[in-house]
Design goal:
Layout: H1 3-16, H2 48-66, H3 70-83, H4 87-97, H5 104-119, H6 126-140, E1 144-150, E2 156-159, E3 163-166, E4 170-175, E5 178-185, E6 192-198, E7 203-208, E8 257-268, E9 275-286, E10 289-300, E11 309-324, E12 327-342, E13 351-369, E14 374-385, E15 390-395, E16 398-404, E17 408-418
Parallel strand pairs: 1-7
Antiparallel strand pairs: 1-4, 2-3, 2-5, 5-6, 8-9, 8-17, 9-10, 10-11, 11-12, 12-13, 13-14, 14-17, 15-16
Amino acid sequence: MSRPFALAVLLLLSLSAPIKAAEPEKTAQSKPDEPKPTRASRYRKLSPEEEERFKARVAAGDRALEARRLNEAADRYTEALTIKHDPRLSGRLGLVLSMFLPDPQTDLTMAFALQVAVSEAAGISSAERRQFFEAYERVRKRVCRVDVMVNDVDAMVSIGVDRRVRSEGAFWTFLSPGKTDISATLTGRKDLKQTAECVDGKSIFLQFEFPEPDEGQPQIITIEKEPKERRVIVREVVRAPNAAREPLPLEAEAPPRFNVGIGPVMVFGAAPSASLGFSLVGQYRRQSFSVMAVAKGAWSLGDVVNRPIDIFSASAVAGPCAHWQWFQGCALAGATIFDHRLGPTSVYGLYTDTHVVPTLGLGVGATYGITSTVSARIFADAAALTRDVVVDIAAPGGTTPIWQTNRFLFSVSASLMFGR
């Protein structure tokens, strides 16, 4: 997500929170001709066209999230939130942002989004509500909440260099780590300044007290035609869910998926030279875990010690995998077949020898979503053979070994994966 667009999200979510948060009035980086996102009201009834537009943005965000296109998912969810206030969608946006590398501006946006979801107990299940709470708990350790009270509702409060808000007596906001200058200004009074230091996600309370004006000083009285809206200030209270009260169901954020793939593979250790072939992959994934099965076959690209010996190897392995964003790690077990063929020549006769060796291994891979149903994957694995395979040459004086495996096979494959 671009930095200016993240700032726009921060403005939107700060106004959507159930507790009055700081409303940035002007952003230093913005330009007069840049379009500003409209702020969604939680009480306004949407027209049928707006409702359809909202659903389309949410669906597009869900598809992008499923394909791991995180920037696109965050943008679509943000566009939807400018149309309609939805605490659960705010929590979902916060979860998407939690998958980005930590960044001060992203942390602020994520904190506001997750605060909306947590404060309104959003979520279709206790598992989803717990996800929102745990993500909010993590980001709260990286940002600080500051509560500001001013003894005049007309005072303007400046937070850093890019946020200026009307106090209306009291408000709160989130701050990035470090020191932030906060000042309060009021017509006819001397400016008040304080410095808030954010350390380890602590909460901060600042109070600005403007002294009463001198009796001889003329006072500026503003008469409004309509009375101001009365506001209720509610303090934030977040309670951790009681895990002993209700067992959490095993509920996936996305539906289970089955993928199949095919592509080339390069194998090292099955022959004196590298072997080239192809691989077939099948994978069943549920949430952050999956079960994968791989079948691959490869032919050696060279001979064995200048002798006309061809080596073919085929492996079939399967095992569980754990996923984190684009990456996965797997534990695999199976068997490898080695097939050696010699001759015939004027010196050697036709000879075929086959061995089946159990294997255990580990693998790591990375997957990039191209569309919602097609993705590209690179996978590397190392397998340990339970016994050696030796290539012998029979001579008049007996059998002479000329090459043997080194107990480890390494392979690298590239595959196109199909399926949702």
